[in-house]
Every structure is written in structure tokens, then in C-alpha cells.
Amino acid sequence: MQFVVTMVSKGLYRYPEINPKAMQVFHADQYSLEVKNGGHSQFIHNAGGEIDTMIANARAGLSACRAKGQLATLEKMSAWIAEHPDEAAKQTGFEGGRDDFLDTLDDAFYEADEAEPMEDLLARWIVSWPDLQIVDDDDYVHALDRLVLSNPQREGRLLHESVRKLVRQMLSQREVGAGLACATISPSEIKLGFGMARMLDVEGEKQLVFQLRTSANELRLCAVTKTRVAVYEYVAPEDPPVMRPGENPLGANAPSVGTLLGRAEQPEIETVIQLSEQNHAPVAVDLLLRKAGFDPLGATVSANSVAQTAEGPVVNWVVLASDRTFLSLSSPNGSVLLGSEDYEKLAETTMPELDAHFDRSAAAG
Fold this sequence. Notes:
This protein is an alpha+beta fold and 365 residues long. The protein has helices at 2-9, 20-47, 51-64, 68-83, 85-89, 100-115, 118-126, 140-149, 154-170, 173-183, 266-278, 281-291, 351-364, and strands at 191-202, 205-214, 220-224, 228-235, 256-265, 300-309, 312-321, 324-331, 334-339, 345-350. The chain has 3 domains: 20-130; 171-264, no CATH class; 270-364. A hairpin with a 5-residue loop joins strand 9 (334-339) and strand 10 (345-350). Helix 3 packs antiparallel against helix 4 (68-83) and helix 4 (68-83) runs antiparallel to helix 6.
């Protein structure tokens, strides 16, 4: 499990590029973990569009290690999905979204795993692989690092991953709207990231509300509608959450929506998103940080404002990267990265440079 997770998350290998037997163990173990945590219903829900691949790999792994009882429950689940696709799509793993037949498979899986633990069977199979390289415990992390760095596609994929994360922050209604709304708070705040979502009462209506972390010390709540994105005070529940088996954690001891702190209307949000696309703003942040000598992977970007200039509209962004805060100004002629305290120009790009960087990122995807 750790091997596959490390190869994907750090090495940026794709699943088809990883040893097939490793993937079979990985998905067999995922099947077991999901069933033990929330049952076959949860496995189906969390697998989503990857379920056919996961079942095929788990089937191969369980068959190879001779986990006959666990394989039998997997096959029955697979057959049930094929016969009841509509019911399968309704599975959540929580009460009200669990089919009774799948609960019987949970019991059968537990009985099989108690008689012959799947982990033991997989372990015996793994050590029989002729292509397995055994390393000392002290060398294990270094061995993984060597494999991570040996991926010839890694640098290009790092670029693509960095830009993809920036695109998600700079072209999303929720992300852009929350940033603009935070900028209207007095004193202004910087949008950092979203947490869990709940249905809460907002000004007399039930709305989907997200926890929001900002540069302030307190949590905020963010509500997104078709007409605006609004940020509110977070009013904590009086008692700590008490979870019951099968209960949805998003509904336990929910907070309340407090005073409206800031908001951004849909026309302004749409304008920022449109300008960001036209001016390659996500690509610009990535390239500007690289030019200035900072790592763009993991950067946090918060929309701040739009300024009208003689050269056209300029979108101002607050950028957090490498434990520093920057300002990025995106315009039709290119982009600039400034220090947040003295507004010193740290890097700049032209549109031809951004077009080329965009093409490199797209090609690496």
C-alpha cells in the first residue's frame, strides 16, 4: 500500500505504469479496508468510476493469494452491482444508503477474514515474487526515493500538477468568490482553504455551507449560491460531537451561521474567472514563482480585486508559497509578481512566455 501511494503521490507514476501485482495487492487491500470501515456499500460509493478496475485488480490479487472466502464476497458484490446498477449508484455507506444484501456480504467477509486473514495471505504471496527486491529497513525510504526520482515523466507531471491545482483555485466560482468576499471583510482576510460541508440555515433558507479557513484566527463559513458567494462568522456548537454508528458525520453537532462578514456578487466573480482564462493567470502564478526561485507546487491563491488601468483590467491575487506572501497582477500584456510588504518586483512574464508555458503544462498532462 505504501509503495503504491508513494509512487503515485510523489513519483507521479500512473497506475498502468506500476507493477501489476503491486496494483492487485493495493486494490485487494483497499477492498478490505473499505469493507472493514463502512462495508461493501462504502466500497462501492468510494470506488466511483474506478470500481471496475479496482474489482478486477482485487479479484486477481485475492485469487493469486488464495483468499477464497474474501474472493467469494467480492464476486457476489460484483454480480449484485451488474444486476442492480441503479441501487449500486445509491450506496453511501451510511444509514439510509445501505442495501441489506450488501450487509450480509459484510458478515461473510468478516467470517472469512477471521478464519484466514487476508493480510497474511497477501504477505505470503508477496514474498514469493521472483522480481521482488528486498532492502534493509534502514534503506527502505532511500530505495523509495530513488524510484520516485527515476520517473522520466516526473518533472513534466510536476508542472502539470502545479498548474492543475492553481487552475482549481483561480477558475472556480467557489474559490474565486470566497477570495473576493474575504477581501471585502474589514480588516481584509485571505482565503486559505475549505473544510467539510453541511446543510445549514442561512438567512432563513437551507443552504450548503462550507467551513473556510482564512488568514484570521477564527474559522469562517462560506455559502455559495447562483448569485453570490458569502462569508459568515462561524458559531461553534455548544457540545462536542457525539457520533453514532452509521451516522453521517456532516450532520453531527453542526455549527451555526453567524454575522455576514463579506460577499462577492456573481458578475464580479464571472469577470475574474473570464479574465483569468484569457490572461493565463494560473500558468502565470506557476511561472512567476519559478522565475523568482520559489516552489509553486502547493501554492495557495486568493482572488483580491479587479483594477481598471489604461492597459485594460488587471486582476490582483494574493499568493502564499514557501511560507511567504506575494501579490500577482494579471493583465492582458502579461503578469507580475510583487513582494507583499514593499511591492518590490520579483518577476514578470509576457503573454508569449505564458503561451509557451501553458503548452508545456498541457503536453505533460
